[in-house]
């Protein structure tokens, strides 16, 4: 059994541990689904040396948000 804190390779990426942050539906982007400083700060606060964060996706249509957008 591999240790959670042992190195791993995922495709071309070398990770120093196996703790991966899963994608979230934070919807922090600006109008037009443009990434912004808030998103950069959010992920920078959660990053680790040699870790992997699978970031949120951008909806491909107005109906793809999964909930009513209050804008």
Automatic annotation (TrEMBL):
Annotated transmembrane regions: none
Pfam family, one: Oxidored_FMN
Domain NADH:flavin oxidoreductase/NADH oxidase N-terminal: from-to ranges: 4-68
Recorded superkingdom: Bacteria
GO molecular function: FMN binding; oxidoreductase activity
Protein name, entry field: N-ethylmaleimide reductase
Organism from which the protein derives: Caballeronia sordidicola
